[in-house]
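Q: Second attempt. The first request was missing the SMILES, so the protein and zinc ion are both included now.
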Amino acid sequence: MTNPTATDPTLLARIGDHMMWGIYLDFSRYIIAAGLMFAILLVFKSWANSRRIQERRAKATDYRRELLSSLRTVFFFAVTTISTMLLRDAGVIKLELHEFSTWILVAQIGVMVLVHDAYFYWLHRTMHHPKLFRTLHLHHHKSRTPTPFTAYSFSVGEAVLEAAFVPLFLLMTSLAGIAYAGMAVLFFIWIQIVRNVMQHAGVELHPAGWVDSKWTDWISTTTHHDLHHSEGRYNYGFYFTFWDRWMGTEHPEYKQRFREVAKPVVVSRGLAEKLSISVMAVLATSATLHSGLQTMGLSLI
Ligand SMILES: [Zn+2]
Ligand SMILES: [Zn+2]
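A: Got both inputs this time. The predicted holo structure:
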């Protein structure tokens, strides 16, 4: 293997190529997930309004700030993604594209989500330290009433720290001799953006009774993260409620507030029709995306 240097044109070409694909993929993931959520809330407007968590509504200036700063985040996500690609090209990060058994794939995704949950909780709590908050995390909290577009609304510093998880995680697994499946990383990235958009929807998306069942209560809800935006001092977790409960940082009224907004769904004929149209739209988008990723995105990992 040749030793690439800063003047190596193939290295520069690879950086440019990775950057272009990184921006394209990160932007399309964000805009598809946030845009789809925004459209669903618009189509099911009366249902969404009955489950709105805050009375306050986000203003046009909030949407503009969130969209613009999310575009900046996409750029920095792509810059950070370059390190993953170059480390993979250099053989430091081990990513395998050949067939993995379904069980290994599920296990790898599960481990990555669990580790990311811990990374997010502790990074998030650290960024709430008075000496760091203003520089790193204040920008995200300008969205007191979150919208689906809040998902990537970060300062530059927070965007880099959030994006650093994937290369750091893959570096650790590679050093431990574990080759991660490229497909597992792809699934993880999609789970991350979908959950991120759900947490910022401003409307409780989880069914009534979610916090009262031992089978679902450990998975976070929209109300859980929304309370963090409206009150700040509680609920630092992301996918799960473990860390907030272990560390005593869960909002004392979380379950009560969830029960107040998560009303049982009454399926009328009009709602059923909208639901079937939405399911078809989501399936059509997924199919288009899947074929697009097969021809373009998968070649990255
Ligand atoms: Zn915060
Ligand atoms: Zn947030």
